[in-house]
Structures are given as C-alpha cells and as structure tokens.
Amino acid sequence: MDSKSTSLDFAIIGHQESWQSITSFINGIRNASIEPLPVDKIKDVFGFMPPRDLFKITLKSKTGNEVNGVFIETFIDPDKLSARYLKTNISKVKKAISLASKLNAKLATLGGFTSIVLEGSRNEFKDISIKLTTGNTLTAGFILKGIEHACVQYDIRLEESNVLIIGATGDIGLACTHYLKQKVSTLLLNARNQRRLETLATSLRNEGVNVFCDTNLESLVPKADIIIAVASSKDILIGNTKNNVIICDAGYPKNLENRLLKKEDIILFHGGMGIINYGYTFSPNYKPFFYNYPVDNVAHGCVLEAVILAFEKKYENYSVGKGNITPEAISNIYQWALKHGVELAPFYNSKGLCKLFNTKV
Amino acid sequence: METLTNNFKSIEEFQVISDVFSQAITGELIGMSNFASLSGTIEDPFEKMEAIEHANGERQHAEGFMAYAKKTGLNININLNGSYWGRIRDVFLSYANKNDFIACLMIQEVMLEAFAVSMYTDVGRVLEDEAQKLFLSIAEEEKEHMDHSTEILRSELKKNPDDFIRKIEIIHYECMTILSEFSARTDLSGHCGVCHGDCMKNSLHHIGLDVVTMRGNALALYAEALDNIGIPGEKSVLWIANLPA
Ligand SMILES: NC(=O)C1=CN([C@@H]2O[C@H](COP(=O)(O)OP(=O)(O)OC[C@H]3O[C@@H](n4cnc5c(N)ncnc54)[C@H](OP(=O)(O)O)[C@@H]3O)[C@@H](O)[C@H]2O)C=CC1
Ligand SMILES: [Fe+2]
Ligand SMILES: [Fe+2]
C-alpha cells in the first residue's frame, strides 16, 4: 500500500529539462476522456506545485538483492534555472529534501540543478538523518570509463592524447581533471572564470602536469583529441575540431550536437550514464513519460550513485561540496557498480545508438 | 449608482476591491451555512458542538468583512446560489445529509480553506492598513482551522489508508473541479453571480494581483494540505493533473 510509511532505501530528487516533458507527463496521466492541456495551462498550475513524490523505483542487483526508492519531482521551472530564481529554486530543493526525509528515505541524490544546495554549507541539514549526495562521483566514473572505453574501441592511446575539459572548475570537471592528470599527455582546461581556472592550472603545473587553460574555448578545441563537456551551459560552440575527435557530452541542457560548427569526423556520445542489467522498474509505470533513451534500463550516474550506495548499504554523504571527488572514490563506486550488475551504458547520442561503440571490451 | 469614496485611488480599484470583499463575504457565509447544516444532521454531541463553533467562527469572519465594507462604502453583492458557490454548497450538503463529518471537514476545512488561506494572504499582502490586517488575520485563523482538521484527517487516514484515500479522491473530483473552474483564467462555467459586471479576474491588476498566481498559490497550498494529511504525492499529482484548467 502506498500510504504506509515503509522505509525507503533512497530518493532521487530531480527536475525536468523542459516544460515539454512536464506537459507530456501531465497529459499522460490525465484521464483519456478529458482533453489534453496546452503547455501554458500546465505552467499555470505546475509552475507553482510544491515538490511531490511521483513514482517508486525498484532495482535488482546481480547479487539478487533489491532496493526501493522514490522519484521526487521538485517542479523547479525549467525556464527559470538562472541565478535570478536561485532563492525560489533552493527553497524547492529544500522542501524536496524534507519530503524525502518524511518518506523515510535513507539517502537522497540531488540530480541536475538540485545538487547546488550541497555545494556550500550543509548546516541546515545537520538535524535531519537522511544522507545526501550529488551523485557526481559515479557520474564522473561513467564519463571517465566511457572515455577509456572509447580509446580502446578507436585504438587511441590516452597517454598520448590531449584532453579538453569544458567546465573544468566545476565539481565533475575537477573530478575528471584529477583522475586524468597522470594519465594523459596534456590537459586543456576551460571555464569562464579566469581566476579559478588559473589557480587550478597553477596547482596542476606544480604537480608536474602538462596543462593549458583558457577561457576562450576556440583556442583549445583545435588541440584536443578528446573533449569532455561538463558545463551547464547553452552557449558553448565547438568549431575547428581535429578529425575523429571524441566528445563526451555529459552536461545539461543536452544541446551540444547543435553547437558543433563541423559535424563530420566527430564521435560524440552522451556520457555519465550507466545501464542496469538485472531489473529496473517504475511504479506506477511512468517510464514512457520520464524515459527517453534509445536503450532500455539506462540511467544517469547521479541516480545510480544512490542505488549503488543502497545496494552496498553505505548510507553516507558520498559526494558533497565541490572539488572533493578523489580518483579512489571514483574507482570504489565504479567497482561496486560492477558488482551489482550496473555497467557503463552503451554509447548513444541524439540520433540513437552509436553502433561502432556497442560492443563490450 | 456606485460612489467612489476617498478610500480608493480609482473607480477600477474600488470595483475590484468591492468584488474581492463580495467573494470573501459570500465564501464565509457558505462556510457558516455549511457548518450550520452539518450541526443539524450529525448525532455525535462532540461533533455537533464542533460544527456550531465552526459556523460561528465563519459568521464572525463574514461580519468582519461586512463591517469594513460598510465603513468604506464598498459595493457588496452577496450570492450564495451563484454557479460556483451554489454547486459547492450542494456538494457539501450531500455529505452533510449523509452525516459524513469527515467528508464535510475535508470540503470545508481543507479544500475551501486552502483557497481561502492562500487567496486572503495574497490579497492581504497588496491591500493596505485595516483591509490588510483584516485579510491577514482571518487567513491566520483559517490556517488554524486547516491545521486542526488536518490532525483529525491524518488519524482517520491511519485507520484505513486505502478506504480513506478512495473517499478523498471522490470528494476531490466533486469539489475541486468546481473550485478549479471558478479560479481558472476565464470562468469555465459562466459568470459567478457575485462579481459586478465582468469577472474581477480581469481587473485584479488594478490592485497588483493576477488570477494565475492566486490560483497557482491556492492549488499549491491545497497540495501541501494533502501532503500533511498523508496523501501520497503520487496520488495528489494525479488528482490535480485531472482537474479542469
Ligand atoms: N550525466 C549525469 O548523470 C550528470 C550530469 N550532470 C551535468 O554535468 C554538468 C556539470 O555539473 P557540475 O560539475 O555539478 O556543475 P558545476 O556548476 O560544479 O560546474 C560547472 C562548470 O562549468 C563551467 N561553465 C559554466 N558555463 C560555462 C560556459 N559557458 N563555458 C565554459 N564553462 C562553463 C563552470 O565554470 P565558470 O562558471 O567559471 O564558467 C564550472 O566549471 C551539469 O550540466 C550537470 O547537469 C550532473 C550530474 C549528473
Ligand atoms: Fe472563515
Ligand atoms: Fe474556516
């Protein structure tokens, strides 16, 4: 029964990328006998809606264990993600966290924009027993394993490659930077804030890492063999790429494919994703509304981080703050994921599966 | 003939504030009548007394609004039989006639009160001085009614969650459909019979309000009220998604 307060292993706190997806969900759950609503009428109501648990999720591990969670939609307005609306959005995330706690979830992962509340001080959450994570460690793990996997497939030597990280000073960008710094020929780092970028580059140089940084993307792109895009921005433009450059697009909004000035000789996949091999179900089955990947049983690294921690019964604040993700933490969670039958997702992009990549190493 | 007293900046403001007070008074009188009807049908002495006490509370709210309206010369129209208020009253009476205290509480103290608390708060924030105090203090009292009833409903849910949720779902569609039509951008079931001339919804900007925000806030408070009772979010989102908009 749904109203019993049985304990939940995890909660996923998220938001939608566009009003279109909220609209298709709302119209999808409206009775077939009443007319579907236009997007403006849906905004009139759901633009104000407080966070709500929408469906339950059950996952099975390779070990036979099962974990149960819930998806909490924050109803953050997808058109209002900018700094101007920060206060309203943060208050929605906080309400979602209290809801997760009220639902007796042991751990909540904060997907997409919602992870912002874990970047700074967490004082206000110190009185609640629920553990919180951004899910960025496993996201970084899937991004990096994706890159390693692609290198094997394409016979590219990572240690001889120049790797460009767009969004290098962000949490995931930093995790990728530190993981790759001893494994590649040169790191090319990009973000908009020059001071933060320089500080990072200087500390890397002091460790003997070969690094270039620039706030101007154009000057870095032509040197890159591999590009990891982990900035949350609509304004990135990628031109002048090397032939057969590998691009892992792990940022949101997902629009990088439309931001490439040259589309030939580019291998682009959506990164940071994992696949669940032993069972992944929603109840009610809202998958048709919330699931739009070309392969079944794929999920974001940030979502899967909570799942893996639940499988491992490690209810802890696994990824919090900014710049705290270590290569060890990445390796650990990735190994646990494999143990439970959760692997790197097959490569795909907006056109569908990338066939070349689809074989396992 | 409408007369503009010096309490108002413009004729438009006078008219819209008159309509706002007319709706508030009508709503309070509906609440008063609802509880008065309930007190006549229920047997349980405790519930009977509760109902009378509630009815009296709503009467005092109506009197408060009326006194202000009289003092400032507002043009008040009271109509308990308009197309929305009348239907709401009918739904309530159908449960009062069945001695269904819980259903009546749900309609009056959760559904209607969520709208009252939210809308009075929005109105209170934009009006000034005494009118502001009046709306905000009544909103505060209505909020207490909501909280009090929420406790009763929460324990009722615990007794038999499945049956309770099924029952609330039926009441939701009966009552919230009317409130949803009433508060939509355009009246979905014709004129309310309370506002003068066209519906005040199109004139709310004269006092710095808009109907979309007021309705959005009210439905949000209703959703939170359902949460507080213990209705799963999965249900409330479905129920709200299925309302007319
Ligand atoms: N696939 C998955 O499972 C997941 C994906 N993500 C996505 O990954 C991305 C990064 O997340 P996270 O690291 O937490 O975010 P952060 O906010 O910590 O970092 C964002 C980084 O991008 C930089 N940036 C922002 N705009 C631009 C721009 N126009 N050009 C270049 N750099 C820019 C920022 O630096 P500056 O401000 O100086 O430019 C910063 O370095 C997000 O888009 C997020 O949605 C997150 C979690 C899971
Ligand atoms: Fe009242
Ligand atoms: Fe009341």
Automatic annotation (TrEMBL), chain A:
Start and end residues of each Quinate/shikimate 5-dehydrogenase/glutamyl-tRNA reductase domain: 157-269
Top-level division of the source organism's lineage: Bacteria
Keyword Membrane: no
InterPro entries in the record: NAD(P)-bd_dom_sf, Shikm_DH/Glu-tRNA_Rdtase
Keyword Glycoprotein in annotation: no
Protein keywords: NADP
Protein name listed in UniProt: Quinate/shikimate 5-dehydrogenase/glutamyl-tRNA reductase domain-containing protein
From TrEMBL, chain B:
Any coiled-coil regions, as ranges: none
GO molecular function term, any single one: aldehyde oxygenase (deformylating) activity
CDD domains in the cross-refs: Ferritin_like
Listed InterPro entries: Ald_deCOase, Ferritin-like, Ferritin-like_SF
Protein name: Long-chain fatty aldehyde decarbonylase
Organism of origin: Aestuariibaculum sediminum
Lineage: Bacteria, Pseudomonadati, Bacteroidota, Flavobacteriia, Flavobacteriales
